Amino acid sequence: MKKYPIKTGLLTLCISLCSLFTHAQNKLHAADSLFALQNWKAAKQNYVSYLGDTSVNSLAWNRLGYCNHNLGLYTEALKDYQKALDNKPSPPVRGVATARMARSYAMLNETTEATDWLVKSAATGYNILTDLDTLADLKNVRQASNYKDLRKKVYEAVYPCAAEPHSHDFDFWIGDWDVYQTGSKFLVGHSLVQSIAGDCALLENWTSTQAHTGKSFNYYDAAAGKWEQDWLGAGGQSDRQRFYNGEYKDGAMSFTNESINAQKVKVLGNFKFYNIDKDTVRQYLEQSADDGKTYQPIYDFTYVRKKQ
């Protein structure tokens, strides 16, 4: 008989705790519903009631911050976003919270802080460039006297290859070209060379005058400190090549390669792109089937930039 009061007390405590939990969840559901309706003031009241001072719900803190932001309470919003970040949010929440930190700092006209948070947001994988270029909240950043430098800093955080100097070694080949047999006016094809993947690679789109087509993918391998080119042509298996050890030196990008020909003989290759001037590039390939003792030219082309 003496145990009943204890059991009754535990049951009462359990019921009370369940009631408190249900009440808190109802507050959160109400807050989320009002947030979706963009009723910022009412949503804020419910988030504040739900969160108290000790909640670790990073998503709710982030949303409370956005309520305060839309109510013009930017300093309060920053505190809420920081609490969201302090509670180890998921990557998507972290990206959004850091981006919103930037927006609140921008609205306070603290452009340096705003830019720092834009960079942090970019580091989470959040593509902050779209926000930077379009959002009204970031107008102060766009109007800053050093905006060009600020945007470059953010761009390089989103696209780290842009900040790698060697990633631009081959930029002289970017363009829309007519391609001729070197030393003649004989047109052999056309080539469109584009910078792709946030300055991480060059894509060559080749079309010969004989209807042959192909593409090459050119990129700088920072780990190896060298450039590589992967070529895939329309000629099938024999029209696939990889060039490596690429290095820009003395005005030319130079590659080497090694392959096995139809006679099962090892073939060595030297492949060069000469940076003649801003409108002219010479492409030259030579190969050796005697282990490098002698080399024979395979082709020698001159790229002439098309006039706009």
Explain what the structure shows.
The protein is an alpha+beta fold and about 300 residues long. A 10-stranded antiparallel β-barrel has the order 1-2-3-4-5-6-7-8-9-10. Helices cover about 40% and strands about 30% of the residues. The protein has helices spanning about 5-35, 40-50, 60-70, 75-85, 90-105, 110-125, 130-135, 140, 145-160, and strands at about 175-180, 185-195, 200-210, 215-220, 225-235, 240-250, 250-260, 265-275, 280-290, 295-305. Mean pLDDT is about 90; it is low at about 10-20. It has 2 domains: about 25-160, Serine Threonine Protein Phosphatase 5, Tetratricopeptide repeat (Alpha Horseshoe), CATH 1.25.40; about 165-305, Lipocalin (Beta Barrel).
Layout of strands and helices, then pairs:
Layout: H1 4-36, H2 40-51, H3 58-70, H4 74-86, H5 91-107, H6 111-123, H7 129-134, H8 139-142, H9 147-158, E1 175-181, E2 187-196, E3 201-208, E4 213-221, E5 226-233, E6 240-249, E7 252-260, E8 266-277, E9 280-288, E10 296-305
Antiparallel strand pairs: 1-2, 1-10, 2-3, 3-4, 4-5, 5-6, 6-7, 7-8, 8-9, 9-10
Helix pairs in contact: 1-2, 2-3, 3-4, 3-5, 4-5, 5-6, 6-9
Provide the descriptors you would attach to this structure in a database record.
308 residues; alpha+beta; Serine Threonine Protein Phosphatase 5, Tetratricopeptide repeat; Lipocalin; 2 domains; 10-stranded antiparallel beta barrel; 9 helices; 10 strands; elongated
